[in-house]
Amino acid sequence: MASQKNNRAERREWYKLDLSAIVYPTLQRKDFSSVYRLSVILKEEIQPEILQQAVDTALKRFPTYKAAIRKGLFWRYLEPNVRPGPFVQPDIKNPCMPMPFKANNRYLIRIYYHHCRIALEAHHSLGDGTGGMCVLQTITAVYLRLLGHKISCGGFVLDVDETPDPEELEDAYIRYANAQVRPPRPGEKTYRVRGTKEPFYTLNIIDGILSVKEIAKVASSYDATITEYLNACLLYALMQKQQHDWHKKLRPVKIAMPVNLRRFFPSKTLRNFITMVYPSIDPRLGEYTFEEIITQVHFYMRYYINEKFLRGDITTNAATQQNPVIRVIPLFIKDFVVRLFYTKVQDKNSSAGLTNMGALKVPEDMKPFIERFDIYMGQPFSSRTNCAIISFEDILTINFASSIKESDVERYFFKKLVQDGIHVKIESNREMED
Amino acid sequence: MSYCVNCGVELESSLVSCPLCNTPVINPNELPYVKKASPYPEEMGQVEVVKRKDWAILLSVVCGATALTCGLLNFLVFNQNMWSLLVIGICIIIWVAAFPAIVYTKLPIYVSLLADGASIAVYLYMITYVTHSDRWFFSLALPIVVIILCIAEIITLLGRKVSHTFLPSAVYLFGGVAILCVSIELLIDRFTGNKPALSWSAIVLTVCVIIEIALITILSRRRFRDAVRRRLHF
Fold first, then answer.
1. Which domain does B15 fall in, by range?
2. Are residues B102 and B165 both part of a single domain?
3. pLDDT for A320-330, tens place per residue?
4. Is residue B138 part of a domain?
5. Do B98 and B156 belong to one domain?
6. Domains and CATH numbers, chain A
7. B7, B17, B47 ranked by CB distance to A418: nearest
8. A425 contacts in B (CB within 8 Å)?
């Protein structure tokens, strides 16, 4: 009787979408979903049956990832998904495919394997890269344990026998949206990369594999961090692309960069807890040298990425969601307005996306089994390129994902690294035309 | 280990050309060339098609039950005339219209339009059982349905094969309206036994022709076209 009651209570459990997650389902199209991919390359070939066992065991620890998205009258919400799955499947050439909410037994995650690689694809409405990394590392740890290795918990690897901490499931934005003023959102048309759209289902990937020591040495020679240096390289590549292309007038070049708010506001949440900053240069003011770009990025980061500015930013974003008038507007009207705002303003506000997950930590006893990690920001909403960076031990991977044929931005970017004396190894799923 | 001679990057051993600049990889020491395995799989993924089976069952059951119960009510209780045919016809139209959206989503739009037209024609024919005369159906209703269907098919074809942007769509639409109005007036004249002549439809035709000329002029001049698109964008 008691267990029946517990089951009913479990069934009643549901989660409101967090502040960022509200936007992602709105942008869902037949040919676009906000899906990101995290993958780990192990040193041994993956055994799919054991991986499936590991997924089944580990996912119970992550109720917001073993969930389905549903529509209410005013907002969408997540509810636990008790359908069979998610099932591991062989990897595909075109990752981050659109993820219809009603397909795949309503799961919003996919798990793939290919030789030594385990890849997790998750819809952004479930959580951000940090949350996804916890899921991936926990699955990997359980998988290795099932193979007979002793792997301890800690960092991104959570204890699968523990019950989830309520703080892991909370919308952390609301806790910190308490600034007295709401700084305005930046809104300016920026340079857009023009390119030939690839057919539906194509995602072009170019991975650059580098040494962390080498790049840290070069970055410090410019008095910058690795993130600042790579940001500057991408701005430099986009600036060169704009100069070489035909255009009526020059536009500012801006990068949309997510910042992990957990660094500034203590939270254990596994859901979204990021905000965007936009390092930029304005070629209309004159020609920039690389050193000038790096200085600009360096001071921009110092000025904007701090607890005060970020709190103001969270408050601005939360104000819209908490407005009582907006809350009672039916979902379909909200969807229409948000989509229009995103397409006409937000998407035009940046020339490319760049995210840096930084140096990944794994438990000491797990290190010997891991070769490297990869991260892909997924299919861009419009024709542009997204760049994601992650490092593990001495390997830093820069993963570009785009749905256009041209790879000029990537070429300018990696050429700059090579010119600075960094050794870059390239992997790609592209099939170049003769 | 190969390097791109143009970009200076090291290339993964399975790559036959540089993904950044398309420069081919030629390593004279590795001839004859043996293709290495790519770190990426060869198989392309396909997005799973969402099954709307539940909705299809629900719609079919609701339409079927409504038609059946109304038919029985008409046959057993209120049996002065065949009013249930009007309800049954509406159920058929709703089911046929919803068929491409929830039952078979791959149905070509031309076929679904044809099915919609056919279901409306069947419904109108059912009404003849209530009105006790079918002259209006054969000489007026059926030809109008056929003309609307032809215009809808042609506009769809033009939208798909020629252009579906705002201005060309307006050209098709006004052309369709003009043809429809003229046809309706001629059919009414024939039905009432009057001599075929244009009166009110001539006004509609004139207005449509003026709009068509204006639209075609705008379309043929790039400067006009851009100005209209700029001012009307949404």
1. 1-40
2. no
3. 888 888 888 88
4. no
5. no
6. 14-176 (3.30.559.10), 204-428 (3.30.559.30)
7. B7
8. 9-12
Q: For chain B, positions 25-54, list CB contacts with chain A under 8 A.
A: 38-51
Do residue B81 and residue B122 come from a single domain?
A: yes
Q: Is residue B35 part of a domain?
A: yes
Among chain B residues, CA nearest to A432? B22
Q: Report pLDDT for A432.
A: 64
Kindly state whether A432 is in contact with chain B, defined as any CB-CB distance less than 8 angstroms: yes
Identify all chain A residues contacting B7, using CB atoms and an 8 Å cutoff: 411, 414-415, 418
When CB atoms are compared, the residue of A410, A414, A427 closest to B39 is A427
Average pLDDT over residues B202-228: 87
Residues B7 and B74 in one domain: no
Number of domains in chain B: 3
* B66 secondary structure, DSSP code: H
Cβ pair A396, A212 in contact under 8 A:
yes
Mapped onto helix, strand or coil, the DSSP state of residue A268 is coil
Mean pLDDT of B54-62: 87
| Helix H or strand E segment including A24 | helix A23-26
- Chain B touched by A94 (CB under 8 Å): yes
Residues B111 and B174 in one domain: no
pLDDT tens profile A86-132: 999 999 988 888 898 888 889 999 999 998 999 999 999 999 999 99
Interface of A with B in 162-201 (CB under 8 A): 201
How far apart CA A291 and CA A287 sit, in angstroms, is 12
Question: How high is the ipTM of this complex?
Answer: 0.75
- CB contacts of A426 in chain B (<8 Å) are 4, 9-12, 15, 18-20
Model confidence at A347: pLDDT above 70:
yes
The angle formed by the CA atoms of residues A355, A357 and A359, to the nearest 5 degrees, is: 140
Edge-to-edge strands, sheet with A35-42: A88-90, A109-114, A117-123, A35-42, A370-376
B45 falls within a domain: no
Same domain, B155 and B233: yes
Measure A96 CA to nearest chain B CA, in Å: 10
Is position B104 within any domain? Answer: yes
Cα–Cα distance measured from residue A177 to residue A330, given in angstroms and rounded to the nearest whole number: 24
Residues B156 and B224 in one domain: yes
Nearest by Cα to A27 from A99, A108, A129, A107: A99
CB contact under 8 A, A424 and B9: yes
